Amino acid sequence: MPELPEVEGLAAALRERLVGRAVAETALASFSLLKTVGVPPQALHGRPVDDVRRYGKYLSLVVDGTHVVVHLMRAGWVAWHDEAPRTRLRPGGRSPVALRMTFDDGSGLDLTEAGTRKGMAAWIVDDPAQVEGLTGLGPDALGLVPPLEMPPLVGVDRATGEVRVAVSTTAEERAGFWAGVLAGRRTRLKGLLREQAVVSGIGNGWSDEICHTARLSPFALGDSLDAGQTGRLAEAVHEVLLGATERAVGRAPEELKDGKREGMRVHGRAGQECPVCGDVVREVVYADSSMQYCPGCQTGGQVLADRSTSRFVK
């Protein structure tokens, strides 16, 4: 699933390509994708793209003041074309393309979703606050402010012309924020990091990396962390997400998924050697997901219960 760094990188890539271009045509191939009816896709035709933004894990194309908000969910993505395909989309067909937008220079993008379980969603609204999922998000995991108030992380240095990722929070602010988040929460750390109503932007992959970097068990309860552990968690969230965003920005959309995997030390690496301590990376499997962790770095050597076997692995 695309998370904060990948969606921020995607927003930056699309912003560079689209701002100033006008929408020439839209083609909707999956009627279940669109969750609003007030503004039809055809209403975007001939109107310029003003901006591309990220809100949590949501992507928003701002077209002449109208927002096309997209939640990519687990298997959704944006495929960019310097020259848009000319093949006609058939509603209800087998193509993974749910929506195609073509622009006045002949370029285009496809909203695609792999697999048979379809969860990707889009809204066309005058105000992003009209999307219920956005108003229910917790503070942004990097900016620590409500997502709708979050400025873009990516900017251009006026002195050097370099593209940079900038976050203005201090270590003290980050520690205080996470102390407030953890207080009174008898929730496992892994689940707490993924709870979008608590803090937005972190998903399954980067939560594994954050716990590993902070040297904390994913099963630790939120309110059990002491001040030192809370400080490590706060800095791990900042370090992991900022580093991943810096690696994502500047990549083409088609490179972002592989780029995400390259930056991971434990997630998706069960059975491999931990690059920090040399222990074997372990896995806990759930019905529809899994998590990876290093016993040597995170649990004092203890192997956590795997629900796929309902026992402790010795």
From TrEMBL:
SMART domains in alphabetical order: Fapy_DNA_glyco, H2TH
PROSITE patterns, A to Z: FPG_CAT (PS51068), ZF_FPG_2 (PS51066)
GO molecular function: 8-oxo-7,8-dihydroguanine DNA N-glycosylase activity; damaged DNA binding; DNA-(apurinic or apyrimidinic site) endonuclease activity; lyase activity; zinc ion binding
One of the protein's GO biological processes: base-excision repair
Domain of life: Bacteria
Keyword Transferase: no
Family annotation (SUPFAM superfamilies): Glucocorticoid receptor-like (DNA-binding domain), N-terminal domain of MutM-like DNA repair proteins, S13-like H2TH domain
Residue ranges occupied by any FPG-type domain in the UniProt entry: 265-299
The keyword Transmembrane helix belongs to this UniProt entry's keyword annotation: no
Ranges for domain Formamidopyrimidine-DNA glycosylase catalytic: 2-120
Key words, A-Z: DNA damage, DNA repair, DNA-binding, Glycosidase, Hydrolase, Lyase, Metal-binding, Multifunctional enzyme, Zinc, Zinc-finger
Range of residues in the leader sequence: none
Similarity remark: Belongs to the FPG family.
Protein name: Formamidopyrimidine-DNA glycosylase
